[in-house]
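Dissemination and training. As part of the outreach component of the grant, students in the summer workshop were shown how a complex can be specified as a set of sequence lines and then modelled as a single object. The example used during the hands-on session is reproduced here so that future cohorts can follow it. Participants entered these lines:
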Amino acid sequence: MASQLLMAKSPEEAISAKTAQAAFLAGGTEVNRLGSSVDAETLISLKKCSGLDGIESDAGYVTIGSMCTFQQLIESDKVPAYIREAAHFMASRTKRNMATIGGNIASMRRDSYMIPALIAAGAVLELAGSGGSCRIGIEEYLDKAAEYAGCLILSVTVPEKIKLMSKRYSNTAQSHAVLTMSAAVCGDGIVMAAALKNSGIYRLMDFEKALKADPEMSDDDIISWFRNWDAIRVEADMFGGEDYKRYLMGVTACDFRAGLASGSGKEVES
Amino acid sequence: MINCTINGKKRSIDIDPVKSLREMLLKNGNFAVRDSDDAEGFCGSDTVLLDGTPVFANLVLAGEAEGCEIVTPDSLGDSMHLTVVQQALIDAGVVQSAYNAPAAALLMTWLFDNNPDPSREDVKDVLSGIFIRDAGYEQYYLAAKLIKEKLATGEYKTEIAPEFRPQLKSVGKVMPKVDAPQLVSGERAFVEDYVDDDTCYMVVLRSPYAHAYVNKIDTSKAEALPGVIKVITAYNCPDVTYMSAGQGEPEPSPHDRRLLNKKVRHVGDRVAAIVAETLEEAIKARDLIEVEYEPLDAVFTVEEAMAEGAPLVHNGRVQYNAGAPDDLDEYNAKLSGDEREGKVVYQFPLHGDVLHNVAAANHGGIGDVDKAFEEADAVVEATYQTSQIQHTPLETHICFSKLENGRLIVYASTQVPYHVRRIVSWVTGLPQNKIHVIKTRVGGGYGSKQDILVEDLTAYATFATGRPVLYHNTREEEFIANSTRHPMRVHVKMGGKKDGSITGIYMKVDANTGPYGNHALTVPMNSCSKTLPLFKCDNMKYDLTIYYTNTPPAGAYQGYGTPKGTYGLMMAMCELADKLGVDYKEMVLKNHVEEGYMLEILKGLGEGREGNVVPVGSCGLREAVEKGCEMIEWGKREESDDPDWKIGKGFAMIMQGSGLPGLDHANAIAKLEMDGSIIVLSGAADIGTGLDTIIAKVASDILCVPVERITVITGDTDSGAFDTGSYASSGTFFSGNAAVVASTKLKEMILNEAALQLGEDKDDMELDWPGEVISKKTGKKLSYYEIIHTATSGTGRGHLIAPGSFTTAASSVPYGAHFAQVAVNIKTGEVKVQKFYAVQDAGTPINPEAALCQMYGASLKSIGHTLYEDMILDEDGRCVNANMTDYGVPMISEQPDDFKAVLIDVDDPDGPFGAKSISEIACNGAAPAIGNAIHDACGVWMRSWPMTPEKILRELGKIK
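and obtained this result:
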């Protein structure tokens, strides 16, 4: 348990207080929850931090302040439908009132509600750290997690118009997801991402390539592809057996391919 | 110092800013901001408004509340000044065990403050962060409607519930539950609300091993810590062998445990109890205890337990207090006799055999099943597996005890106050007059509080230290150290003729009781005794074996073994109908029992003794089946627009009991008070289901006094009279009937006294509303005030006090049928319960609105059991999903879109004013109804619950 709380009033103040023994505290649903993996001496609360809760739309992109709660995302007309759908995956309204988009990204949970959709949408993060600020793609942020661990997420930028589908599988609406997947049309191909519980968060680039190479792959072939995909480690656990999880990824990929081809993406609603 | 505004008042609270907002609010006296999940952000008991937005107070730090405005549930209205929202929740019947009722009231208030015309989706959304286990969510929609109407027009327009028995004024009428104002307003109600400031805290060191000897415990470092009062271990606790089941004495459960044992038998078993002046000190001391374990091989399933040469969970001496077998010495010689094993003491033979890990067994039947199967046109045979399930009451197990003038005072959240007193008496050696058990309101029991799981140790800690002691389970401890639903393997063989008649039924039930035998016989017994009597069949046989294992303990759970037996039997019947080519509904109608049918099968199904063979009494089963089939349009095939989703329908007939005839016993005392009002002292234990209200209503109609003039005091072992407790659906039938007896006796006393005072014959006297006696002969009247005033004057004949005792051999059986329409995604295995209809014969529903809520609550709970609830153990016997999120319980998102509860009007001759039990039976139908519907949808028989998408995909051949 932390021994100190700092209420940062600005991003600069938050960043200057960030040390290896300190952690940023956003909505609190992750850091303050039972069994949290965050162990810090000092918590830097961002609740009263200025400039992190705006939602702006400009030139086909929406920039969302990192302290925007899931509920604010749902209630904003500016936020694309696919982001609102991902926010709705968090079934508890009370929790949505607290959880923030920045917190959800930074916690990098393997049952993340939001990250697969953000990967598929090609989200860009604006980060600020002791060395200054930068804009990077969410995939890079995830790939270089250690490098960016001291950085504060200021905002998330996503395209307004994109065909994107998401699907979340869990025992109950409030349970942790065994699998959350998203896919979006990108150029003449599909970008696909998955958060697989107890395995990892993946941009499914290998599959994207396979599909590009053989756009006529049958559904059975797609399911087989995921069954045989050895680049990721999938183990049986309380969320299901290995074959179940791989099958689920495969069958979901089939649905996405068909859905995006038929125009089922969320772009229309945004 | 945190400066903020709480409920409109500016406050400065001295608290460490890294403590939670909830802790700060508790310090401020807002105790109705409760905790059900140890800051998991799941149950919503800690909901408050922070700057106008609902949040979980456990997940906000106190320091973050600086300068904020906070609103807590206790700010709405007190029990004498309820708000429209609070009153509507009460009137809709949703304020039951009510641990989360204040939080729900706050959320609904917030909803209407921000949106005076909320839609059903808005209500669903606002309640999505709150867990309601008792009443389900359907009637919250009704409450919202009532609020809307009341705010708009000043009155309700919608009928709350059907009413019954027009000749009566209180029974069968919609009327607020008597304890609801206290509960919804967040007044002191639960054990945690009565804890004294100087109370010590107790925590328990629990076993990391599923099976091990505790060879040595070094507590010296722990005891050396300042603030530590005592460490209790197997080596300094009383050598008393007992068990935790709150059942009639002598219990049909083996006595096989002490307060702490020298052998641990499951992960989470008690190793040491630490009492310290603060919780932090107790936890710190716990971490300093050094234990030397000698791990042993363990067994986790009935298959492992029954295997030749399996490790023995109990390998000590066996004793019998009655009926010992002749070869007991020889038998005991085969056991290890290791002193660390302790002993197993049977009060009478239960066919246990610890040498084969058998805690209890029973076998019996009627007719000739082998011949019946030979004569059948078709026979089905299948095994149905059920999982281990946690009750998940919102209020985790808790006990507060203290000494007062040489007596042990025990505040307990229990279903069985008198059994708590008896077991505390055994453990401490104190006579029962030196122990006062006060049952507070109970924040959810569902059977788990029929076991004495924390009161024994807490009370002993006070007895041993002289200090007030509080013990409160964490949510994880609820999973690993409580009772749970027995996992069972139900094997059914059923034969039938082409005309749909069933020729024979065989059930083989293997149940897993875990490490201890509390309820070992009775719970699994219900899988046969509350299912086979549904069938008009001359050939039935059962073999029931209950095994000890090293899983977390099993025990009583709402429905006992009935949901599992019903699952097996009704699934098998559907399979048989399918095989015979007979419509399942027609087969049900052809084979179910009817009034007057003699239930010979019951002879062997008593709880540890011969059962009563009785004819079927009042029975609304056929009407329930017909009504439900009409509602769900049985036989009409539904098609989805999406070819991946297949729709199917299923149903199951169900039954339960209304207490245990010949075993249960209830008492009540009715008193006419000095102003003519009534007090009823009852031994009953209202666990939120409205039993106090039932008692008040029956007294009201017998004594012609409005319910407002009747106070019911229950659950207090000093002021009441013995009652076996609230379990086995006994409350309404037994405690209600005891109130009938006491009230009827008081009525006679009032009539006698009035006759004496008027100088007339008693036969000319009759009671009249509201609380007076009128002479049919002279027309003279005496009010109850006048009668009691004269009776208690210096020359009167004294206070009018009437005791009532109720026992019976009669059995009032509730019947019903539950119906499901499901959609199954044949690509992903997902299941949606689109429709669920619970149609039940509960006799006269004394509290009709509460009855409906209990049907909704139990049905939703059992939908959860059927589809996802499952305690998962790893290879070492450790529960890997011992929290609410990973375990998964149905919340408002999981509720069927079309959910209906329907009461069939049946007037039972033996129940109080014709009433039977209502709630427990509603746990029995979901699994077979949904299982059969899944088959109807996609052709697979789901023979294992929970029926997860993964299992469905496997059955469909989609995955390995």
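Chain A has a mean pLDDT of 94. Students were then asked to discuss how this feature might be tested experimentally.
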